[in-house]
Write a structure and sequence with these properties.
heterodimer; A: 84% helix; B: 64 residues; mainly alpha; two-stranded antiparallel sheet
């Protein structure tokens, strides 16, 4: 493997590691902000707002790391991700609003949960990535 | 868009990985270009033209 290719692969690995670190710490701070007031400290403690702010800042770093990785993609990888993101955005808006309407009109028994929408977004993006990667291979 | 990338690459004795490295894209991108599933950017097309010492229109052929 030549030096240039090795450097490119190392740079990609570095950016993916950064994204993985900020994603996992975001999940961890989200769990802390969710369950901390319930199990670790009193709900009215200032620690609650501190944990929420910490999670928000961690999320901003996760977005930065994702953008950093995206900027390292080549033109085909960008196209694949962009097409997948476009489809995911469409699905999120349509499914999200339909789900919200179903809740407002009491057609579904339970309250609409944002977690359901996040799950749909994740699944849609994953499936779209798989299909698009296959299409261009 | 049709192209002669595979033919020209083989003439030069490059693998897909070699060509990918020279023009600064992934091997998967070279593969997609050769299979005509993906049209490269103008920048990549110019890099190929320079590498193969041919005008762009000799490498990428319009379907019209």
């Amino acid at each position: 493997m030549s030096n240039k290719l090795y450097k490119m692969k190392e740079e990609r690995k570095k950016r993916m590691t950064q994204l993985a670190i900020w994603t996992w710490t975001w999940v961890a701070t989200l769990a802390l902000a969710t369950f901390g007031p319930e199990f670790i400290w009193a709900a009215d403690s200032p620690l609650t707002i501190v944990s929420i702010v910490l999670n928000f800042l961690n999320g901003a770093l996760m977005i930065w790391a994702n953008r950093n990785l995206y900027n390292h993609y080549d033109e085909l990888e960008r196209k694949i991700h962009l097409e997948s993101m476009a489809l995911t955005l469409g699905v999120a808006v349509i499914v999200g609003l339909t789900y919200s309407l179903l809740d407002q009109k009491n057609i579904i028994q339970s309250d609409a949960e944002i977690g359901v929408l996040v799950g749909i977004i994740g699944i849609t993006y994953g499936v779209a990535m798989g299909i698009n990667t296959k299409r261009y291979s | 868009m049709n192209n002669r990338v595979k033919e020209l690459r083989k003439e030069k004795g490059y693998t897909q990985e070699d060509l990918a490295e020279i023009i600064g894209v992934s091997r998967q991108t070279v593969n997609a270009i050769e299979k005509q599933k993906f049209d490269p950017s103008l920048n990549t097309a110019f890099k190929m033209a320079k590498l193969f010492e041919l005008p762009i229109e000799s490498i990428f052929l319009s379907e019209d």
